[in-house]
Amino acid sequence: MPESKIRGLIRDRQPQPPAGFETRLDALLDNLTQAPATAEKPRPRLALALAIALVLLGISAAIAASLGVFDRFAQQAHDRQRLQQLGHTATHYQNTITIPGDAASGFPATVFTLDQAHYDGESLYISYQLSAKDAPLSGYRILNGQPGQDMLKAAEQLPVDQLADILGQKAWAAIRQQLEEQGWLHFHTYTQFLGDSAALYADTALYPSQGSAKREDDRSEIGFWEFARPLPDKAVNQEQLDINLTLYRETRAYYLTKEAAYRLPEGERLALPLALRILKDHAATHYAAQGRFDSYQVAAQAKVSAVDIKVDLFVSAHSGRITDVLDTGASTDETGRERITGFALYADGVACRMVEGSFQLEGEGMRIQLGFLAPEAIQTLVLVPEYNHGHERAEEALTLIP
Amino acid sequence: MTDKDALDALFVKAVKAHSLALFRAAFSILRQDADAEDAVSTAVERCYRSIRNIRDWDRVSGYLMRAVVNASYDLLRIRKREMPVEAPDLDYLSENHDEGGPVWMYLGHLSPKERLIMQLRFGENMEVKEIARLLRLPRGSVSVNIGRTLKKLRQDLTQEEGSRA
């Protein structure tokens, strides 16, 4: 089946809201807008607030400059502790690769810096910075002359506000001003970004499962990736990984009048390889246990890395119905019997904080995958089921053995 | 007209103009009518509470969409804690989308993020760059996600066609 047909099917057959959706939304809007306006909080005196803000800005900028990329994301991320742990654990590289500029397109000379990386044979994380000296990584250039009629015929008309989104507020304001003066504008944008599909190890793709990137005040870009586990077989338990990332450089041309915006069939995308060597810096430890209790049996495996503990559980009920032992939240149990609602993990007697979890049916059992923050050193790991009303059942505790 | 009335009018107009897109984005993550509607309501309330902070009304659709995505993921996290066992609304999808049934069935097998990206790209016709900005993902990641998901869907659908033949 051609991809265009799939795209068409997705586009043309979309879910419809249930009956009454619009009416209920109208009612909500009525309620919101008819409520009396709340008084605004009194604002501190502007001069004082500004002085405090400037002092704080100076302090935070100084702190940020001295922190690694993982730590900088940890300042605002929801999984702060894990990123802090990564910042603490991952090896500092500071390896740089310089990509020459391209004056014709507008691209400045760009420096890719591998800030930190962590590889323990089974999991891989990297953090990086992309920067250009005294220049933004991406921007736009005004082109001479108007596009020809053939070019305009093949152009795709865009909503003008979409162009504002593509360019960003500051550039859009400048473009609009030039448009007012000239009546039309022919320009191209140049953008560069790291393509996370191109993390290749020995021709095998390593896909990121999580990550983030952001522009800093100095116009550089910082980012980090966690690669999906399990890594491909070839990339498991190596002493080092030689991987290739790709920096994409893309130009696209636009034509703008006071009435309409067009994307022109001009432009190109270049893929530039960035070769990195990541060394194994820690070793993961594996734990396992099995247990058989009154109503269910469970097999558990845990992988303890320097960053987190991943627990993989398979639970099956003696009765054959997993909902007899697990409270899925999807069905009401009116018999009042106690069922498992989750699992707690203790490392050397201290409860570990759960940071992720997923559940899915597998045959007649349930596959449960949980992620916990890892304490610095671990001797014993114990998994305890939690039953309705939040109490743990110690007699069903499972001691995981390395 | 007071300042509040003017802001309210702008807000109501924006919500009404985008309600369908907001519902579809929430549904692509949650795959339950009721949950998707809850997520939209929560997001609308949250945005309204911050109505005075909206500086650029040309971008209000983006704020609303971002709020819906956040509210949907909040609900999804609650659902995960409750350990859902049933694959929600797959029957609904196949019954309600006869010709497109298999596509929506297989979309149901994707991760919430993959479904959301497909919905925004092909359902709402958004640019990769806009999606990346909205979801705070690298653009490359969005492009790759779309390519990988299309490939996955093509394989599934080709298999489906083969088994029907």
Counting DSSP H or I runs of 4 or more residues, the number of helices of chain B is: 8
Radius of gyration of chain A: 28 Å
Low-confidence stretches of chain B: 81-101
| Average of the residue pLDDT scores of chain B | 74
What is the residue-mean pLDDT of chain A, rounded to a whole number? 81
Biggest beta sheet summary of chain A: 6 strands, antiparallel
Level-1 CATH class name of the largest domain in chain B: Mainly Alpha
Element order of chain A: H for helix, E for strand: HHHHHEEEEHEHHEEEEEEEEEEEEEEE
Fold and architecture overview:
Chain A is of the alpha+beta class and 402 residues long. Chain A has 2 domains: 67-144 and 151-279, Sandwich (Immunoglobulin-like); 285-400, Sandwich (Immunoglobulin-like). Helix content of chain A is 22%, strand content 43%. In chain A, the strands form 4 sheets. In chain A, strands 4, 5, 6, 7, 10 and 11 form a 6-stranded antiparallel beta sheet that branches. Chain A has a 5-stranded antiparallel beta sheet with strand order 1-2-3-9-8. Chain A has a 5-stranded antiparallel beta sheet with strand order 12-13-14-18-17, with no helix packed on it. In chain A, strand 8 (208-215) and strand 9 form a beta hairpin. The longest helix of chain A has 21 residues, at 46-66. The model of chain A is unreliable at 38-64 (pLDDT under 50). Mean pLDDT of chain B is 74; it is low at 81-101. Chain B has helices at 3-30, 33-49, 60-81, 90-96, 101-107, 112-123, 128-135, 139-164. Helices cover 77% and strands 0% of the residues of chain B. Chain B folds into 2 domains: 1-87, Rna Polymerase Sigma Factor, Chain: A, CATH 1.10.1740; 89-165, Butyryl-CoA Dehydrogenase, subunit A, domain 3 (Up-down Bundle). Chain B is elongated. Chain B is mostly helical. The longest helix of chain B has 28 residues, at 3-30. At the A-B interface, helix 1, helix 2, helix 7, strand 6 and strand 8 of A face helix 1, helix 2, helix 3, helix 5 and helix 6 of B.
